[in-house]
Amino acid sequence: MLGSPAPAAARGPTVWLALPERGGIFEEAALALRAALAQLNPAPGVEVALWDEFRPERNGVPALIVAMGTPALRGLLALAVSEPARRAWPVVAALVPKSSFDASPPPSGMRVSAAFLDQPLARYAALIELALPDRPRVGVVLGPTSVGLREALASALAQRRLSLADSTLGPGAGPEALFPALSDVLERSDVLLALPDPLVVSAASLQNLLIAAYRQRKPVVSFAASHVRAGAGLALYTTPRQSAVQAAAMAATWLATGTLPAPQFATAFEVSTNERVLRSLGLPASDAETLTRSLRQREPER
Fold first, then answer.
1. Under 8 Å CB-to-CB from 89, ≥6 apart: which residues?
2. Which of 118, 123, 140, 225 has the largest CB neighbor count within 10 A?
3. CA–CA separation, 131 and 26 (whole Å)
């Protein structure tokens, strides 16, 4: 589907586009990234394969590798540990959460950056102020992955005249600790913000979390469109295509300047709403396109 690379003589430097698996969102994102790189002058050659299929003797030496998803990033870093020559090849990761990136340090001397799927905390605060203006107390259950965000989140909320009601699950906490903490937070808040933390939001806990919030008549603002389909009121998220295009811009900077941009939060985003849930809670139900457009207009110039 992604086609064959152009002859080496007709293209610029080579970029390896490393996938964790074939099909689905990864090939969709790969198409978007390849199209973005094709606009450069000179356009780089792009080799697309699974992360463990690339061989310099067959694919040449890359100017840059773009790793799609956490498994591809971790696989490439592991190869660089066992094959030190690979450490000379810089990597930009796309479709990765910040927590996974932080938990995957590169070997010494290797340059690695990322376009995170994570949203800036200030963007969540702006969405809550915009979509739920009469819900100023924002409840959050923090787990080991997200607890480090507490002070920054409190500051971001305060700038929008919102307050934080939080509870923290320690590193040794198990799933059974979640719902006492959640009940405490729901008692002290007007809206529940679900941040990406696997101890707090997982396939096993999501439905019970949504039901508990709904019974307390508290809307949930989450980080995944699928959560809106499951019953959250709103979600703020970045699509695979948007993450890929951002990674392509980072790759273009490296190819043009030899400087690898620092890891960065998602710049493009979408908002989804569950109007049925919001109306049943007696809340305004602005359509998703209107909220997305209004939120983008509030973004500071980058």
1. 16, 61, 62, 64, 65
2. 140
3. 31
Pick the CATH number of 121-237+269-298 from 3.20.20.140, 3.30.1330.60, 3.40.50.2300, 3.40.30.10: 3.40.50.2300
Dihedral of CA 94/110/145/124: which sign?
negative
Sign of CA dihedral 155, 141, 181, 172: negative
Taking the C-alpha atoms of residue 236 and residue 261, their distance in angstroms, rounded to an integer, is 24
Question: Which residue is listed with tokens 């995944």?
Answer: 224
Between the alpha carbon of residue 200 and those of residues 140, 222, 286, the distances in Å are: 10, 12, 28
Helical H segments across 238-302, by residue range: 240-257, 275-280, 288-298
Residue 204 is given by DSSP the state T
| 8-116+241-257 CATH pick, 3.40.190.10, 2.130.10.10, 3.40.50.280, 3.90.550.10 | 3.40.50.280
Q: Name residue 237's amino acid.
A: Y
pLDDT by 10s per residue, the chain, length 302 = 444 444 444 457 999 999 999 988 999 999 999 999 999 999 999 999 999 999 998 888 999 999 999 999 999 999 999 999 999 999 999 999 999 999 999 999 999 999 999 999 999 999 999 999 999 999 999 999 999 999 999 999 999 999 999 999 987 888 889 999 999 999 999 999 999 999 999 999 999 999 999 999 999 999 999 999 999 999 999 999 999 999 999 999 999 999 999 999 999 999 999 999 999 999 988 899 999 999 999 887 54
Residue 220 · residue 249 · CB < 8 Å? no
Element of type H or E holding 236: strand 234-237
Distance CA 17, CA 10 (A): 19
